[in-house]
Write a structure and sequence with these properties.
The protein has about 80 residues and is an alpha+beta fold. The protein is built from four helices and three strands. The chain has a single domain, classed as 3-Layer(aba) Sandwich (GIY-YIG endonuclease), CATH 3.40.1440.10.
Length: about 80
């Protein structure tokens, strides 16, 4: 079973949300149906990036990294053509 790190972008503000889940499809439905407190009033959004990890510890460490300055720089480079295009 994979553990996922995912990035949502809110269409109105272009803000990025970074999260972790074991079930990506279910988690996106929860976001869509306003079941997640942080994203409840920020719709619409779209999934712009995700990674799969083989265990929970790797996934949660990766999520924490992506929330740091260096992690944000990694995402900026990784998604350069998307974010500037």
């Amino acid at each position: 079973m994979f553990h996922y790190i995912y990035i949502l972008q809110f269409k109105n503000t272009k803000e990025l949300y970074k999260g972790y889940t074991k079930n990506l499809k279910l988690r996106l439905e929860q976001h869509k149906n306003n079941k997640v407190e942080y994203t409840k009033n920020k719709s619409p959004f779209k999934l712009i990036y995700f990674e799969g990890c083989l265990n929970q510890q790797d996934a949660t460490h990766r999520e924490k990294y992506l929330k740091t300055y260096l992690g944000r720089m990694f995402l900026k480079n990784r998604l350069k053509s998307y974010l500037t295009g």
